[in-house]
Amino acid sequence: MLRRLIAILKTRWLAEQQSHTRWLIVGLFTIILILDFSTPPPYALGFLYTVPILLSSRLGRSATVQATVMATGLTLLNLFIPNLEWYNFATVMNRLLMAMALIVTGWLSERNLYHEEALARQKAQLQAQQQLASAREDFVSTLTHDLKTPLLGAIEALKSLQQEKYGAVTAAQQKVFSTIVRSHENSLGLIETLLDVYRNDTEGVRLKLAPVELVTLAEEAIATVSELASKRQVDVRLSYRESDYHSLWVNGDGLQLRRVFNNLLTNGINNCPRGGKVEVVFESDSTYQLVKILDNGRGITPDELPRLFERFYQGHSDRQSMGSGLGLYLTRQIIEAHGGRIWGENRFSSGDTTVGSQRGASFRLRLPAHQIGNW
Fold first, then answer.
1. pLDDT of the residue at 338
2. How far apart are CA 22 and CA 24, in angstroms?
3. Contact at 8 Å (CB) between 218 and 238?
């Protein structure tokens, strides 16, 4: 009701303003007409018509055109009224130049109005897009929060059934319960990833920085994905290339960096053939710590390479076919928040043969090194 009242009052105010502008234009035309027709021909007062022409642009294109035509007509009419001056070459040229100037003024005024309207439309579209993006992010955030609660409840209930808190459970039922729990946990992980992505986009990645050791984080991540690796019969191992184990430190958020390792290892395992290998290689220098996650899968197509870390991008090949397109995007958010860089390469094209001679993918991340002596 209040919005409607405000809209009505605003409409009335605009109508009053337009009415005042019209009367002002009429008054100016009258004054200029009297001055122009009452002064000798050498006095070129027709240029004053530019003022009402410019004012008429507030009323729209139609009013601008009408004001321009009227001003031009009155300027040329002064050649015949009150006295005939059309035979005076200097006076005729003077009036023609004034008429051309008025036409140009009207045209420029109309062009300016057109560009102002275009800018207003673009601004309105931008505001609408921003409001839509904000509404979408609020919706996703609310939805993910609301979905987590029932999933957590279902997982706890299933685990209680597995623990036989409500009665004996057969081996077949235990297997079914395990499958359902694993499915719910995967869904919960996807929801949390989606929530984190949108939160990071709007608020930035929140880090709790402290000296952390990359090899330890990698070992913990390997233990986390060991069940998936075993199921897919993929061998996951660590490797050091001329690196000092005790110097692989960075100033980072251990929880977030562990998620990076989990995402990259999961991606490598999912895209390896059965019996394949995923290797985590560490390299170090005085400035940066370099980590490589290598697999011997089918590799990455040239079209996919530039878009690997885009949100929701899943590619066109078999890579990432089991994912949501959010894992690598979240990984890039975390690494860049640490002041690092991550990129993907095709091992077949790079010639890296650490794991056999088969082709595969190489995901590399580089983080600023933290010297132990700086604690």
1. 92
2. 5
3. yes
pLDDT tens string 180-213: 887 887 777 777 777 777 777 777 788 888 999 9
Long-range contacts of 52-57, Cβ-Cβ distance < 8 Å, separation of 24 or more: 52/24, 52/25, 52/28, 53/102, 53/105, 53/106, 53/109, 54/105, 54/109, 55/21, 55/24, 55/25, 55/28, 56/21, 56/25, 56/109, 57/109, 57/110, 57/112, 57/113
pLDDT tens, 241-254? 655 555 688 999 99
19-41 tens-digit pLDDT: 787 888 788 878 877 877 777 76
Mark out the alpha helices in the chain (DSSP H runs): 2-38, 50-56, 61-77, 89-162, 171-203, 214-224, 226-231, 254-270, 327-337, 347-350
Residues of the chain with CATH 3.30.565.10: 210-374
End-to-end CA distance of the chain: 63
CATH of domain 210-374: 3.30.565.10
